Structure formats: C-alpha cells, structure tokens
Amino acid sequence: MTLSKEPSSGKMTRSTNRDCTLVIMAKAPRPGMVKTRLAQNFPASAILELYRRLLDDTMALAKSLDDADVAIMCPASDVEDLSRATGNGVRVVAQVGDGLAAGLTSVFAIFAAAGGRRIIAFNSDSPHLPASVLESAFAALLAFDVVVGPTHDGGYYLVGAKAPHPALFEGDGMGTKSALDALLARARAMKLSVGFTDPFYDIDVATDLMQLAAELRLTPSRAPRTAVWLKEWEQTVAQLRTSAAQP
Asked: Domain 20-201 in CATH: superfamily?
C-alpha cells in the first residue's frame, strides 16, 4: 500500500467534478437515534434540531461543489423522511444491511458499480469543512485507489474510491476510535494505495460542539444554520465550557 506522506489538500491538481459523486451518510432525525453522546447535555428536541441544522448545512456544502452529483445514503427505514427533508433533486438511497459499515459498503456497491466515477462518502456532521478539502479528496482519487479524511479521535470523516471494495469496511464504520487504523490495515492487505486529506473533526461530543461554537462565532458563514442553533443554545454551551475547565 502506498500512503501519501502529506495531506492531499492543496497538493493535487484540481480537475472537473463531472465524474464525481458525493454521498452523505445520514439518518432521519429521530429521538435516541442521532447525536446520542450529546443527549445528556441538551433536551431531546434540541438534539434533533441540531442534527437537522448540521445536515442542512452539510447538504449546502455538498451542493456548492461545481458539477459533482450529490446523494444521501441512509437506512431503508429513513428514506421517506429524508426525501421529504431534503426536497427534490437529491437522490436518497437505502443501504443494504444495518449499521454504518453496511452503509459505506452500499455507497460504493451502488454508485461505483458502473465504473468511471469517483465516489466520496462524507459524514453528515462536518458542515464546517472547507469545500476545498472535498475538492482535494476527489482530486486525490486521480492518483490513489482510496482517499481518507482522518478525524482527530481515530476515525474518519470521509472515504472515497473509484471501485467497490466490499471487504474494506467489514466490521466497523467511520465513527469508531479504531476505525482509521482498521481501514488502513484492510487497505494494506488488499494492496490499495491510499491518499489523505487534512485531519479534521466532526460533532460527536461536547468538546467538539464547544470547538465548533468558537469557530462559528468568528465565521458563521461556514455553517450558518448550525451557527443559529449555537446562538440559541449559547448559554448551555458556555456552561459546558465552564464545566470542562474545572479540575
């Protein structure tokens, strides 16, 4: 396996996105099903609204990419709800099987099966990611079999490929703390070359939310709908920050 030694953003030649598809990994916003690690800090209704805002901003980010197709991959039970939530023009596709690993396998089995396309699976809770990073991920697929966007906690926020690799996602998904190491080990065993985008973070726990709030206070345009939610819950987020600072 060939690993890129530097993050790929800014290192790859930009190219047309006409052969590119960005697939958002999403769920319908239902109690107890989304952002569960934040449930102890906010009312259930607030958690659902946060997820809706994150997803809306993620979709806006995806649609900002020139020429790239955008789709959603979700559990079969969520297709109807997400189709209503996202409106016309976005294909919402049911995954085969349960869990995130099955969802990722389904992304490439469905969208890369015909060949000739570069496919990126992207999480639904990093809408503040610069669009240039997504562009660099697609560009990396001109040189590598697989591209990965690592998170600081050991997972990954995106993964891309040009062909189905069913064994690549066996047993885990993007969000687990060992997900990146497991993915790279399987890529090594399959002799796939791997490129990387810049490390980033998604919104899973209170510290992630505090970091996002600090960034969006300075540049709310990066995720404007989420920024509004954070403004509405500013006092609660401030209390989280105070609690985290106490010994």
From this structure: Spore Coat Polysaccharide Biosynthesis Protein SpsA; Chain A (3.90.550.10)
